[in-house]
Amino acid sequence: xxxxxxKKSLGQNFLSDRRYLAPILAAAELTPTDAVLEIGPGxxxxxxxxxxxVGCLAAVELxxxxxxxxxxxxxxxxxxxIIHADILAHAPPALIGANLQSPISNLPISYKxxxxxxxxxxxxxxxxxxxxxxxxxxxVIMVQWEVAQRICAQPGDLSLLAVSVQFYAEPRLVQRVPxxxxxxxxxxxxxxxxxxxxxxxxxxxxxxxxxxxxxAGFSQKRKQLHNSLAAGLGLDKATVxxxxxxxxxxxxxRAETLSLAEWGALCREAPIRVDGAMTxx
Length: 281
Ligand code: SAM
Description:
Layout: E1 14-15, H1 21-27, E2 35-39, H2 45-51, E3 56-61, H3 64-73, E4 80-84, H4 92-97, E5 112-116, H5 122-130, E6 138-144, H6 145-151, H7 160-168, E7 169-177, E8 182-183, E9 190-197, H8 207-217, H9 225-233, H10 237-246, H11 260-268
Parallel strand pairs: 2-3, 2-5, 3-4, 5-6
Antiparallel strand pairs: 1-8, 6-9, 7-9
Helix pairs in contact: 5-7, 8-9, 8-11, 9-10
The structure holds S-adenosylmethionine.
S-adenosylmethionine binds at residues 10-15, 39-43, 45-46, 60-63, 86-88, 116, 118, 121.
């Protein structure tokens, strides 16, 4: 799309400083047999580097102006598939699976995601990837620096986003990337974030139940847990006090201080189920 202006609405901040490709590729731990899904190949700078290293690459781009140039550029590489689609409208394993010729099924056993994400859909993409069946084994994504820090936070500083990601994956902040590394230059710095997806969620609780409780816990900013849980779940204070005591958690604590194991204990002692049925404390 020579000459065509970058679309702000699609989060188009293209990586212009190629020195940041090496840490992205290293964090992705690529092998020649890998199947990789790239979200938003843009002008293809990361796509080119990935194509040289993996066995199958599906690159999903929403901007129709970019599709033809990408297809022409990779025409001589049949293992690279340029897909014109909205990443959020398709199951990630189907996007990559449709491009693998597996004799057993059209789903790959395992795939990775590598992407310089369009920031306006970061949370939605994270959820889309981590809740996919199957999710990627590893994701290396560029996100805003502050978002990466929030995702990697420890108890004391946790948020709904951090707990949600850490439930499914082990995050590692690989490296800060300055705004000057992109064109057009965004307002804030970015970070390379590695997400190693867990074989099983961090806590042995059904995801729907876990997120019902965690969402309620974080429903009222900076409020003590007994207040936010009572308000978030529509329970009376005595029930919530008894619940927290049974789970071994001080009712005066705030949601951001709980570890994932403590959220698990809280879920197991919960007086409600996801469908709202009371189990009694
Ligand atoms: N990978 C390129 C790079 O590093 O230079 C481009 C990254 S740019 C931050 C994000 C890319 O995602 C853009 O090319 C944009 O058009 C594309 N994009 C935006 N929304 C998308 C969506 N919903 N599905 C797929 N691609 C999308």
